[in-house]
Specification:
- It is a single chain.
- This protein is an alpha+beta fold and about 475 residues long.
- Helix content is about 45%, strand content about 20%.
- The chain has twelve helices and 15 strands.
- It has helices at about 1-5, 15-20, 40-45, 80-120, 135-145, 145-150, 160-175, 225-285, 290-320, 335-345, 365-385, 440-450, and strands at about 25-30, 50-60, 60-70, 120-125, 130-135, 185-190, 200-210, 215-220, 330-335, 355, 360-365, 390-400, 400-410, 455-460, 465-470.
- A five-stranded antiparallel sheet has the order 5-4-8-7-6.
- Helix 9 (about 290-320) packs across helix 12 (about 440-450) and helix 11 runs antiparallel to helix 12 (about 440-450).
Protein backbone atom coordinates (compact mmCIF):
# COMPACT_ATOMS: atom_id res chain seq x y z
CA UNK A 1 0.00 0.00 0.00
CA UNK A 2 2.81 2.39 0.87
CA UNK A 3 4.57 1.67 -2.42
CA UNK A 4 1.32 2.17 -4.36
CA UNK A 5 0.79 5.59 -2.81
CA UNK A 6 4.19 6.69 -4.06
CA UNK A 7 3.47 5.85 -7.70
CA UNK A 8 1.60 8.05 -10.20
CA UNK A 9 -0.07 5.49 -12.45
CA UNK A 10 -0.47 6.25 -16.16
CA UNK A 11 -2.47 4.46 -18.89
CA UNK A 12 -0.45 1.68 -20.56
CA UNK A 13 2.03 1.17 -17.73
CA UNK A 14 2.27 -2.29 -16.04
CA UNK A 15 0.00 -3.60 -14.61
CA UNK A 16 -2.80 -1.34 -13.60
CA UNK A 17 -2.10 1.08 -16.44
CA UNK A 18 -2.49 -1.67 -19.03
CA UNK A 19 -5.90 -2.68 -17.65
CA UNK A 20 -6.88 0.99 -17.43
CA UNK A 21 -5.98 1.45 -21.09
CA UNK A 22 -7.65 -1.57 -22.71
CA UNK A 23 -10.34 -2.34 -20.14
CA UNK A 24 -9.42 -6.07 -19.95
CA UNK A 25 -8.80 -8.00 -16.72
CA UNK A 26 -5.42 -9.68 -16.15
CA UNK A 27 -3.87 -12.41 -13.93
CA UNK A 28 -0.20 -12.19 -13.01
CA UNK A 29 2.01 -14.89 -11.35
CA UNK A 30 5.41 -14.51 -9.71
CA UNK A 31 5.13 -10.72 -9.24
CA UNK A 32 8.61 -10.44 -7.77
CA UNK A 33 10.29 -11.98 -10.77
CA UNK A 34 9.51 -9.35 -13.42
CA UNK A 35 9.56 -5.70 -12.43
CA UNK A 36 8.61 -4.78 -15.99
CA UNK A 37 5.16 -6.32 -15.49
CA UNK A 38 4.71 -5.10 -11.94
CA UNK A 39 6.24 -1.80 -10.84
CA UNK A 40 6.03 -2.69 -7.13
CA UNK A 41 7.81 -6.06 -7.39
CA UNK A 42 10.21 -5.29 -4.52
CA UNK A 43 7.38 -4.26 -2.22
CA UNK A 44 5.37 -7.35 -3.24
CA UNK A 45 8.34 -9.64 -2.45
CA UNK A 46 8.78 -7.93 0.96
CA UNK A 47 5.11 -8.55 1.69
CA UNK A 48 5.32 -12.17 0.40
CA UNK A 49 2.78 -11.43 -2.32
CA UNK A 50 3.04 -13.89 -5.21
CA UNK A 51 0.07 -13.26 -7.60
CA UNK A 52 -2.38 -10.53 -8.64
CA UNK A 53 -5.77 -10.24 -10.36
CA UNK A 54 -6.50 -6.82 -11.90
CA UNK A 55 -10.11 -6.14 -13.00
CA UNK A 56 -11.52 -3.00 -14.69
CA UNK A 57 -14.87 -1.50 -13.68
CA UNK A 58 -16.45 -0.16 -16.86
CA UNK A 59 -19.60 1.73 -17.85
CA UNK A 60 -20.57 2.55 -21.42
CA UNK A 61 -17.06 1.61 -22.60
CA UNK A 62 -15.39 3.94 -20.09
CA UNK A 63 -13.16 2.66 -17.27
CA UNK A 64 -14.47 4.05 -14.02
CA UNK A 65 -11.99 2.24 -11.73
CA UNK A 66 -9.37 -0.55 -11.64
CA UNK A 67 -9.54 -3.18 -8.87
CA UNK A 68 -6.36 -5.00 -7.84
CA UNK A 69 -6.48 -8.23 -5.77
CA UNK A 70 -3.15 -9.55 -4.36
CA UNK A 71 -2.48 -12.96 -2.76
CA UNK A 72 0.44 -14.74 -1.03
CA UNK A 73 -0.60 -18.03 -2.61
CA UNK A 74 0.83 -19.04 -5.89
CA UNK A 75 -2.13 -20.76 -7.45
CA UNK A 76 -2.79 -21.30 -11.13
CA UNK A 77 -5.53 -19.32 -12.80
CA UNK A 78 -8.78 -21.26 -12.49
CA UNK A 79 -11.36 -21.51 -15.24
CA UNK A 80 -14.38 -19.27 -14.82
CA UNK A 81 -12.75 -16.96 -12.30
CA UNK A 82 -12.40 -14.13 -14.83
CA UNK A 83 -16.03 -14.44 -15.86
CA UNK A 84 -17.17 -14.37 -12.24
CA UNK A 85 -15.02 -11.37 -11.40
CA UNK A 86 -16.14 -9.55 -14.55
CA UNK A 87 -19.80 -10.11 -13.64
CA UNK A 88 -19.19 -8.74 -10.17
CA UNK A 89 -17.35 -5.74 -11.69
CA UNK A 90 -20.28 -5.14 -14.01
CA UNK A 91 -22.62 -4.91 -11.01
CA UNK A 92 -20.18 -2.63 -9.33
CA UNK A 93 -19.94 -0.42 -12.42
CA UNK A 94 -23.71 -0.01 -12.45
CA UNK A 95 -23.65 1.05 -8.83
CA UNK A 96 -20.77 3.44 -9.41
CA UNK A 97 -22.48 4.98 -12.46
CA UNK A 98 -25.60 5.54 -10.37
CA UNK A 99 -23.60 7.11 -7.57
CA UNK A 100 -21.78 9.31 -10.07
CA UNK A 101 -25.09 10.42 -11.61
CA UNK A 102 -26.46 11.15 -8.14
CA UNK A 103 -23.36 13.17 -7.35
CA UNK A 104 -23.74 15.15 -10.57
CA UNK A 105 -27.40 15.74 -9.77
CA UNK A 106 -26.51 16.94 -6.27
CA UNK A 107 -23.89 19.27 -7.70
CA UNK A 108 -26.38 20.54 -10.29
CA UNK A 109 -29.04 21.08 -7.64
CA UNK A 110 -26.53 22.84 -5.43
CA UNK A 111 -25.58 25.17 -8.28
CA UNK A 112 -29.26 25.78 -9.10
CA UNK A 113 -30.12 26.56 -5.50
CA UNK A 114 -27.06 28.77 -5.09
CA UNK A 115 -28.24 30.81 -8.07
CA UNK A 116 -31.98 30.62 -7.35
CA UNK A 117 -31.77 31.38 -3.64
CA UNK A 118 -29.75 34.55 -4.21
CA UNK A 119 -31.58 35.73 -7.36
CA UNK A 120 -33.42 39.05 -7.06
CA UNK A 121 -35.98 37.83 -9.61
CA UNK A 122 -38.75 35.49 -8.52
CA UNK A 123 -38.39 31.79 -9.49
CA UNK A 124 -41.27 29.31 -9.22
CA UNK A 125 -41.23 25.63 -10.28
CA UNK A 126 -44.37 23.60 -10.96
CA UNK A 127 -44.96 19.89 -11.56
CA UNK A 128 -47.16 18.31 -14.23
CA UNK A 129 -50.21 18.64 -11.99
CA UNK A 130 -49.80 22.42 -11.77
CA UNK A 131 -48.60 22.23 -8.15
CA UNK A 132 -45.86 24.53 -6.88
CA UNK A 133 -42.77 22.48 -5.92
CA UNK A 134 -40.19 25.24 -5.48
CA UNK A 135 -40.28 28.92 -4.54
CA UNK A 136 -37.21 31.10 -4.10
CA UNK A 137 -37.02 34.01 -1.62
CA UNK A 138 -37.52 36.50 -4.45
CA UNK A 139 -40.89 34.94 -5.31
CA UNK A 140 -42.02 34.91 -1.67
CA UNK A 141 -41.15 38.60 -1.38
CA UNK A 142 -42.80 39.54 -4.68
CA UNK A 143 -46.10 37.80 -3.92
CA UNK A 144 -46.16 38.53 -0.19
CA UNK A 145 -46.25 34.91 1.03
CA UNK A 146 -44.09 32.76 3.28
CA UNK A 147 -42.40 30.14 1.14
CA UNK A 148 -44.05 27.33 3.11
CA UNK A 149 -47.49 28.79 2.34
CA UNK A 150 -46.85 28.48 -1.41
CA UNK A 151 -45.30 25.01 -1.52
CA UNK A 152 -47.81 22.34 -2.55
CA UNK A 153 -50.43 24.89 -3.61
CA UNK A 154 -51.83 25.16 -7.16
CA UNK A 155 -50.03 27.75 -9.28
CA UNK A 156 -53.42 29.31 -10.07
CA UNK A 157 -53.16 31.08 -6.70
CA UNK A 158 -50.90 33.53 -8.54
CA UNK A 159 -53.05 33.86 -11.70
CA UNK A 160 -55.85 36.47 -11.94
CA UNK A 161 -59.32 35.01 -12.52
CA UNK A 162 -59.63 36.40 -16.04
CA UNK A 163 -56.52 34.46 -17.18
CA UNK A 164 -57.21 31.09 -15.50
CA UNK A 165 -59.25 29.58 -18.32
CA UNK A 166 -56.52 30.34 -20.87
CA UNK A 167 -53.90 28.94 -18.48
CA UNK A 168 -55.84 25.70 -18.04
CA UNK A 169 -56.29 25.26 -21.81
CA UNK A 170 -52.62 25.91 -22.50
CA UNK A 171 -51.52 23.52 -19.72
CA UNK A 172 -53.69 20.69 -21.04
CA UNK A 173 -52.53 21.30 -24.60
CA UNK A 174 -48.87 21.07 -23.56
CA UNK A 175 -49.39 17.82 -21.65
CA UNK A 176 -51.08 16.39 -24.73
CA UNK A 177 -48.78 17.69 -27.49
CA UNK A 178 -45.64 18.83 -25.63
CA UNK A 179 -45.96 22.13 -27.49
CA UNK A 180 -46.42 25.38 -25.62
CA UNK A 181 -46.97 28.88 -26.98
CA UNK A 182 -45.14 30.52 -24.07
CA UNK A 183 -42.29 28.05 -23.58
CA UNK A 184 -38.97 29.76 -24.24
CA UNK A 185 -40.57 33.18 -24.58
CA UNK A 186 -40.81 36.29 -22.41
CA UNK A 187 -44.25 37.83 -22.05
CA UNK A 188 -45.87 40.63 -20.02
CA UNK A 189 -48.81 39.50 -17.87
CA UNK A 190 -50.35 40.25 -14.48
CA UNK A 191 -50.15 38.18 -11.29
CA UNK A 192 -51.97 38.12 -7.96
CA UNK A 193 -50.33 39.14 -4.70
CA UNK A 194 -51.42 37.77 -1.35
CA UNK A 195 -53.29 41.00 -0.54
CA UNK A 196 -55.41 40.59 -3.69
CA UNK A 197 -53.67 43.32 -5.64
CA UNK A 198 -52.28 42.73 -9.12
CA UNK A 199 -48.70 43.30 -10.17
CA UNK A 200 -47.47 43.55 -13.78
CA UNK A 201 -44.74 40.95 -14.38
CA UNK A 202 -42.34 39.83 -17.08
CA UNK A 203 -42.60 36.02 -17.33
CA UNK A 204 -39.97 33.68 -18.85
CA UNK A 205 -41.15 30.05 -18.91
CA UNK A 206 -39.02 26.91 -19.39
CA UNK A 207 -39.75 23.16 -19.14
CA UNK A 208 -37.79 19.95 -18.46
CA UNK A 209 -38.52 16.26 -18.06
CA UNK A 210 -37.88 13.84 -15.24
CA UNK A 211 -38.86 10.19 -15.75
CA UNK A 212 -40.83 11.28 -18.83
CA UNK A 213 -42.94 13.69 -16.74
CA UNK A 214 -42.77 17.40 -17.62
CA UNK A 215 -41.91 20.10 -15.09
CA UNK A 216 -41.96 23.87 -15.46
CA UNK A 217 -39.90 26.75 -14.10
CA UNK A 218 -40.75 30.42 -14.42
CA UNK A 219 -38.44 33.39 -13.92
CA UNK A 220 -40.63 36.33 -12.90
CA UNK A 221 -39.67 39.99 -12.79
CA UNK A 222 -41.72 42.80 -11.26
CA UNK A 223 -42.02 45.49 -13.97
CA UNK A 224 -44.37 47.83 -12.12
CA UNK A 225 -41.59 50.37 -11.50
CA UNK A 226 -40.46 50.09 -15.11
CA UNK A 227 -44.02 50.64 -16.33
CA UNK A 228 -44.41 53.57 -13.93
CA UNK A 229 -41.20 55.07 -15.27
CA UNK A 230 -42.53 54.55 -18.80
CA UNK A 231 -45.79 56.29 -17.87
CA UNK A 232 -43.85 59.15 -16.26
CA UNK A 233 -41.59 59.40 -19.30
CA UNK A 234 -44.59 59.50 -21.66
CA UNK A 235 -46.24 62.10 -19.42
CA UNK A 236 -43.04 64.17 -19.43
CA UNK A 237 -42.93 63.97 -23.22
CA UNK A 238 -46.59 64.95 -23.41
CA UNK A 239 -45.97 67.84 -21.00
CA UNK A 240 -43.04 68.91 -23.14
CA UNK A 241 -45.19 68.81 -26.27
CA UNK A 242 -47.95 70.72 -24.47
CA UNK A 243 -45.47 73.31 -23.22
CA UNK A 244 -43.97 73.70 -26.68
CA UNK A 245 -47.46 74.09 -28.16
CA UNK A 246 -48.36 76.62 -25.46
CA UNK A 247 -45.16 78.55 -26.05
CA UNK A 248 -45.91 78.67 -29.76
CA UNK A 249 -49.40 79.86 -28.91
CA UNK A 250 -48.04 82.51 -26.56
CA UNK A 251 -45.57 83.65 -29.19
CA UNK A 252 -48.36 83.86 -31.73
CA UNK A 253 -50.58 85.66 -29.21
CA UNK A 254 -47.76 88.09 -28.46
CA UNK A 255 -47.36 88.86 -32.15
CA UNK A 256 -51.12 89.22 -32.55
CA UNK A 257 -51.28 91.47 -29.51
CA UNK A 258 -48.47 93.69 -30.72
CA UNK A 259 -50.09 93.90 -34.14
CA UNK A 260 -53.46 94.77 -32.58
CA UNK A 261 -51.99 97.33 -30.21
CA UNK A 262 -50.04 98.95 -33.04
CA UNK A 263 -53.15 99.08 -35.24
CA UNK A 264 -55.59 100.21 -32.56
CA UNK A 265 -53.31 102.93 -31.20
CA UNK A 266 -51.90 104.13 -34.52
CA UNK A 267 -55.33 105.20 -35.81
CA UNK A 268 -56.39 107.21 -32.73
CA UNK A 269 -52.92 108.75 -32.46
CA UNK A 270 -53.09 109.87 -36.07
CA UNK A 271 -56.52 111.38 -35.44
CA UNK A 272 -55.29 113.16 -32.32
CA UNK A 273 -52.27 114.51 -34.20
CA UNK A 274 -54.42 115.79 -37.03
CA UNK A 275 -56.87 117.44 -34.64
CA UNK A 276 -54.02 118.95 -32.61
CA UNK A 277 -52.48 120.38 -35.79
CA UNK A 278 -55.80 121.95 -36.75
CA UNK A 279 -56.20 123.51 -33.30
CA UNK A 280 -52.56 124.61 -33.22
CA UNK A 281 -52.88 126.30 -36.62
CA UNK A 282 -56.06 127.98 -35.50
CA UNK A 283 -54.28 129.64 -32.59
CA UNK A 284 -51.96 131.44 -35.02
CA UNK A 285 -54.74 132.63 -37.32
CA UNK A 286 -58.16 131.86 -35.79
CA UNK A 287 -60.60 130.46 -38.36
CA UNK A 288 -62.69 128.09 -36.22
CA UNK A 289 -65.83 129.10 -34.47
CA UNK A 290 -66.26 128.34 -30.78
CA UNK A 291 -68.70 125.55 -31.67
CA UNK A 292 -66.22 124.00 -34.11
CA UNK A 293 -63.53 124.16 -31.45
CA UNK A 294 -65.80 122.33 -28.99
CA UNK A 295 -66.49 119.67 -31.63
CA UNK A 296 -62.77 119.15 -32.25
CA UNK A 297 -62.09 118.93 -28.51
CA UNK A 298 -65.01 116.48 -28.08
CA UNK A 299 -63.58 114.37 -30.90
CA UNK A 300 -60.21 114.35 -29.17
CA UNK A 301 -61.85 113.25 -25.92
CA UNK A 302 -63.68 110.45 -27.73
CA UNK A 303 -60.44 109.33 -29.36
CA UNK A 304 -58.59 109.41 -26.07
CA UNK A 305 -61.41 107.40 -24.44
CA UNK A 306 -60.94 104.72 -27.12
CA UNK A 307 -57.22 104.63 -26.45
CA UNK A 308 -57.88 104.45 -22.69
CA UNK A 309 -60.22 101.47 -23.20
CA UNK A 310 -57.59 99.69 -25.31
CA UNK A 311 -54.94 100.17 -22.64
CA UNK A 312 -57.33 99.43 -19.76
CA UNK A 313 -58.40 96.16 -21.38
CA UNK A 314 -54.79 95.14 -21.82
CA UNK A 315 -53.67 96.13 -18.31
CA UNK A 316 -56.74 94.74 -16.54
CA UNK A 317 -56.52 91.34 -18.24
CA UNK A 318 -52.82 91.04 -17.40
CA UNK A 319 -53.42 92.18 -13.79
CA UNK A 320 -56.24 89.66 -13.39
CA UNK A 321 -54.11 86.89 -14.88
CA UNK A 322 -51.23 87.60 -12.47
CA UNK A 323 -53.54 87.83 -9.46
CA UNK A 324 -52.64 91.46 -8.79
CA UNK A 325 -56.06 93.00 -9.40
CA UNK A 326 -57.54 94.16 -6.05
CA UNK A 327 -61.19 93.43 -5.20
CA UNK A 328 -63.47 95.09 -2.62
CA UNK A 329 -66.92 93.61 -2.13
CA UNK A 330 -69.96 95.59 -1.02
CA UNK A 331 -73.72 95.25 -1.27
CA UNK A 332 -74.97 97.41 -4.15
CA UNK A 333 -78.09 97.86 -6.26
CA UNK A 334 -76.98 96.56 -9.65
CA UNK A 335 -79.68 98.56 -11.46
CA UNK A 336 -78.46 101.80 -9.91
CA UNK A 337 -74.86 100.88 -10.80
CA UNK A 338 -75.83 100.07 -14.40
CA UNK A 339 -77.78 103.33 -14.67
CA UNK A 340 -74.79 105.42 -13.51
CA UNK A 341 -72.41 103.58 -15.83
CA UNK A 342 -74.79 104.11 -18.75
CA UNK A 343 -74.93 107.87 -18.04
CA UNK A 344 -71.11 108.10 -17.90
CA UNK A 345 -70.60 106.13 -21.12
CA UNK A 346 -73.73 107.11 -23.03
CA UNK A 347 -71.55 108.52 -25.80
CA UNK A 348 -70.24 105.00 -26.54
CA UNK A 349 -73.70 104.14 -27.99
CA UNK A 350 -73.93 107.28 -30.11
CA UNK A 351 -77.49 108.12 -31.12
CA UNK A 352 -78.82 104.57 -30.69
CA UNK A 353 -82.11 104.42 -28.75
CA UNK A 354 -81.93 102.59 -25.41
CA UNK A 355 -84.69 100.61 -23.72
CA UNK A 356 -84.03 100.07 -20.01
CA UNK A 357 -85.68 97.86 -17.41
CA UNK A 358 -83.82 98.44 -14.17
CA UNK A 359 -85.69 97.33 -11.03
CA UNK A 360 -83.74 97.21 -7.76
CA UNK A 361 -81.65 94.02 -7.60
CA UNK A 362 -78.91 93.75 -4.97
CA UNK A 363 -75.64 91.84 -5.20
CA UNK A 364 -72.41 91.54 -3.18
CA UNK A 365 -69.89 92.78 -5.75
CA UNK A 366 -66.92 95.02 -6.43
CA UNK A 367 -68.73 98.04 -7.88
CA UNK A 368 -65.74 99.24 -9.95
CA UNK A 369 -65.35 95.83 -11.58
CA UNK A 370 -69.07 95.60 -12.40
CA UNK A 371 -68.87 99.07 -13.98
CA UNK A 372 -66.00 97.74 -16.11
CA UNK A 373 -68.19 94.80 -17.17
CA UNK A 374 -71.08 97.07 -18.13
CA UNK A 375 -68.79 99.52 -19.97
CA UNK A 376 -67.25 96.72 -22.05
CA UNK A 377 -70.68 95.29 -22.90
CA UNK A 378 -71.91 98.77 -23.97
CA UNK A 379 -68.86 99.28 -26.21
CA UNK A 380 -69.39 95.80 -27.66
CA UNK A 381 -73.04 96.59 -28.38
CA UNK A 382 -72.11 99.85 -30.11
CA UNK A 383 -69.71 98.01 -32.43
CA UNK A 384 -72.29 95.46 -33.55
CA UNK A 385 -75.56 97.39 -33.57
CA UNK A 386 -76.43 99.42 -36.67
CA UNK A 387 -76.84 103.14 -36.10
CA UNK A 388 -80.40 104.01 -35.11
CA UNK A 389 -81.09 100.42 -33.88
CA UNK A 390 -82.27 99.96 -30.31
CA UNK A 391 -80.08 98.57 -27.51
CA UNK A 392 -81.93 96.89 -24.64
CA UNK A 393 -80.48 97.00 -21.12
CA UNK A 394 -82.02 95.29 -18.09
CA UNK A 395 -81.23 93.76 -14.69
CA UNK A 396 -83.15 90.73 -13.41
CA UNK A 397 -83.10 88.35 -10.47
CA UNK A 398 -83.09 84.66 -11.41
CA UNK A 399 -83.04 82.33 -8.46
CA UNK A 400 -79.95 83.11 -6.44
CA UNK A 401 -78.34 85.25 -9.13
CA UNK A 402 -78.56 88.82 -10.33
CA UNK A 403 -78.32 88.98 -14.12
CA UNK A 404 -77.20 91.96 -16.22
CA UNK A 405 -78.67 91.75 -19.76
CA UNK A 406 -77.55 93.78 -22.78
CA UNK A 407 -79.12 92.94 -26.14
CA UNK A 408 -78.08 94.31 -29.51
CA UNK A 409 -79.59 93.94 -32.98
CA UNK A 410 -76.34 93.34 -34.80
CA UNK A 411 -75.37 90.23 -36.84
CA UNK A 412 -75.41 88.03 -33.73
CA UNK A 413 -72.86 85.41 -32.70
CA UNK A 414 -72.80 81.98 -34.45
CA UNK A 415 -73.45 79.14 -32.07
CA UNK A 416 -69.98 77.63 -32.58
CA UNK A 417 -68.42 80.96 -31.51
CA UNK A 418 -70.47 81.55 -28.36
CA UNK A 419 -67.89 79.98 -26.06
CA UNK A 420 -64.61 80.96 -27.70
CA UNK A 421 -65.71 84.59 -28.09
CA UNK A 422 -64.84 85.09 -24.39
CA UNK A 423 -61.23 84.01 -24.99
CA UNK A 424 -58.42 86.54 -25.26
CA UNK A 425 -57.84 88.16 -28.66
CA UNK A 426 -61.11 86.72 -30.02
CA UNK A 427 -63.46 89.03 -31.91
CA UNK A 428 -67.01 88.62 -33.08
CA UNK A 429 -67.38 87.72 -36.76
CA UNK A 430 -67.77 90.86 -38.84
CA UNK A 431 -66.32 93.11 -36.12
CA UNK A 432 -64.14 96.08 -37.00
CA UNK A 433 -60.43 96.14 -36.22
CA UNK A 434 -61.11 98.56 -33.36
CA UNK A 435 -60.31 97.01 -29.96
CA UNK A 436 -57.94 94.23 -28.95
CA UNK A 437 -60.58 91.54 -28.55
CA UNK A 438 -59.94 91.54 -24.79
CA UNK A 439 -63.09 93.26 -23.59
CA UNK A 440 -65.28 90.17 -23.51
CA UNK A 441 -62.45 88.11 -22.07
CA UNK A 442 -62.21 90.55 -19.18
CA UNK A 443 -66.01 90.43 -18.74
CA UNK A 444 -65.88 86.63 -18.39
CA UNK A 445 -62.90 86.66 -15.99
CA UNK A 446 -64.48 89.31 -13.73
CA UNK A 447 -67.79 87.42 -13.67
CA UNK A 448 -66.02 84.21 -12.71
CA UNK A 449 -64.14 85.96 -9.91
CA UNK A 450 -67.49 87.06 -8.44
CA UNK A 451 -68.63 83.43 -8.50
CA UNK A 452 -70.77 83.89 -11.58
CA UNK A 453 -70.41 83.55 -15.33
CA UNK A 454 -70.83 85.35 -18.65
CA UNK A 455 -72.47 83.94 -21.77
CA UNK A 456 -74.15 84.98 -25.00
CA UNK A 457 -77.40 83.76 -26.53
CA UNK A 458 -79.17 84.24 -29.80
CA UNK A 459 -81.84 86.90 -29.82
CA UNK A 460 -85.27 86.42 -31.42
CA UNK A 461 -85.38 88.55 -34.53
CA UNK A 462 -81.57 88.64 -34.81
CA UNK A 463 -78.73 90.06 -32.82
CA UNK A 464 -76.96 88.92 -29.64
CA UNK A 465 -78.07 88.73 -26.03
CA UNK A 466 -75.14 89.05 -23.61
CA UNK A 467 -75.72 87.93 -20.03
CA UNK A 468 -73.59 88.31 -16.88
CA UNK A 469 -74.79 86.53 -13.73
CA UNK A 470 -73.36 87.16 -10.24
CA UNK A 471 -74.66 85.84 -6.90
CA UNK A 472 -77.52 88.00 -5.61
CA UNK A 473 -77.36 89.43 -2.07
CA UNK A 474 -79.62 87.86 0.57
CA UNK A 475 -82.58 89.93 1.87
CA UNK A 476 -83.76 90.46 5.47
CA UNK A 477 -87.48 90.41 6.39
CA UNK A 478 -87.92 94.07 5.47
CA UNK A 479 -86.63 93.37 1.96
CA UNK A 480 -83.36 95.22 2.55
CA UNK A 481 -80.29 93.71 0.96
CA UNK A 482 -77.51 92.63 3.30
Amino acid sequence: RKASLKIHFRPGEPLLGMVWQDGKSRWADELHLDVRSFLRADAAMAASLRAALVVPVCSNGRVLAVLEFLTREQAPQRAGVHELIDAAAAQLSSLMAQKEAEARLRRSEARFRAVAETATDAIVSVDNAGTIIYVNPGAAQLFGYDRADMMGEPVTMLIPDRFRADHADGFKRFLRTREGRLIGKTVLVCAYRRDGSEVPIELSLATWQEESAPYFSAIIRDVSKRQQMQVELEQALEDERTTAFRLRGLDQAKNTLLDAVAHDLRGPLAALRATAMVLQGDTEQPRLTAEERREYLAAMKTTMDKMRRVLDDLLNVEAFKSGQMPFRLESVDLSDLVRRTLEEHRSALGDRPINCSLPAVYAEVDAAKIERIVENLLVNASRHTPKGATVEISVKRRGGHAVICIDDTGPGVPEEMRTVIFERLRKQPGSSREGLGMGLSLVARLAEWHGGRAWVEGRPGGGAAFRVAVPAASLDRTGTAR
